[in-house]
Design goal:
Order of helices and strands: EHEHEHHEHEHEEEHEEHEHHEHH
Largest sheet: 9 strands, parallel
Bound molecules: ligand TD3, zinc ion
CATH class: Alpha Beta
CATH superfamily: Aldolase class I
Shape: globular
CATH topology: TIM Barrel
Oligomer: single chain
Structural class: alpha/beta
Length: 307
């Protein structure tokens, strides 16, 4: 109960065949919406912040809100650094009580990724924190960086085996065809499940699916109805997520779905109540909209009553 590290929740998930949701937050309403859903369903939960979120809100605010939320929740909560790009950010997160960090050197040459990850593992394990790394590279808007087709590659399973052995990393994010953001597929959504299965069997550690948002039609329609202009959005369907969980995915990252629900709700509240300027009246329903997304995701991941 309360604050635990990533291995603690993922090893159980791997053994029992479900995944734990990792949800990004940048403010109090998002954090509360996520936690409310996890507590209500007795689900373990991973709350995560990117470097961009830390730049936006300040790590003191984010870490103290997250620690307080974890301590008072009667479920297992992991506080995770998402896409940490340097050892400096990793150390900053560890010093602020994060129980898990991602070192994402997937844009660097393989050898450099390996040595940075190994160093992050040595440092994080001294704090009893876990480490996630990435091999291959996802397309899309990743935090503040846009990775195009040419910059993206899928994971090499044999390399993954060697990487995991050499670094002692606790969890691995293999690029298998997802991308960050709201525009993941042009045609039929497809992931490289064979590659995923191979990585799972060759590495034996819990795997992480990035760029996993489902991009719900309801959020897009609501946003567009109240003034947004979002066209051609497509996410990962729930049945593909379930298949990926069967094949070794134990942590599923969701950010875009929360952003879409949040902004669609704000648009709706402002449009429906043009006289309103009490923030609580606008952001109260918005917090509920975030919660509804997380409740749905927990249902898909099968993590309810495992907290
Ligand atoms: O790491 N993340 C979240 C942060 C970057 C993108 O917003 C994910 O893998 C989730 O990606 P998404 O865009 O599918 O929610
Ligand atoms: Zn990601």
């Amino acid at each position: 109960m309360g604050l635990v590290n990533l291995s603690h929740v993922l090893l159980k998930a791997k053994e029992r065949g479900y995944a734990v949701g990792a949800f990004n937050f940048v403010n109090m309403e998002m954090l509360q919406g996520i936690l409310d859903a996890a507590v209500e369903t007795h689900s373990p939960v991973i709350i995560q912040t990117t470097e961009g979120a830390i730049e936006y809100a300040g790590i003191d605010y984010l870490a103290s809100m997250a620690r307080m939320a974890a301590e008072k929740a009667n479920i297992e909560v992991v506080i995770h650094l998402d896409h940490g790009k340097s050892l400096d950010t990793v150390m900053l997160a560890l010093e602020h009580g994060y129980t898990s960090v991602m070192i994402d050197a997937s844009d660097k040459p393989y050898k450099e990724n390996l040595s940075l990850t190994k160093e992050a593992v040595d440092r994080a394990h001294k704090f009893n924190a876990s480490v996630e790394a990435e091999l291959g590279r996802l397309k899309g808007i990743e935090d503040n960086v846009n990775v195009d087709d040419a910059g993206s590659t899928l994971v090499d399973p044999e390399q993954a085996k060697e990487f995991v052995k050499a670094t002692g990393v606790d969890a691995l994010a293999p690029a298998i065809g997802t991308s960050h953001g709201a525009f993941k597929f042009k045609g039929t959504p497809r992931l490289d499940m064979k590659r995923l299965e191979l990585v799972a069997s060759l590495t034996g550690i819990p795997l992480v699916l990035h760029g996993a948002s489902s991009v719900p039609k309801g959020s897009i329609e609501k946003a567009n109805k109240y003034g947004a202009n979002i066209k051609g959005a497509a996410g990962v369907p729930d049945d593909i997520i379930k298949q990926a969980i069967k094949q070794g995915i134990c942590k599923v990252n969701t950010d875009t779905d929360l952003r879409l629900a949040f902004t669609a709700s704000v648009r709706e509240e402002l449009a429906k109540h043009p006289e309103e300027f009490d923030l609580r009246k606008i952001l109260g329903p918005t917090r509920q909209a975030v919660k509804a997304i997380v409740l749905n995701r927990i249902g898909v991941f099968g993590s309810g009553n495992r907290g």
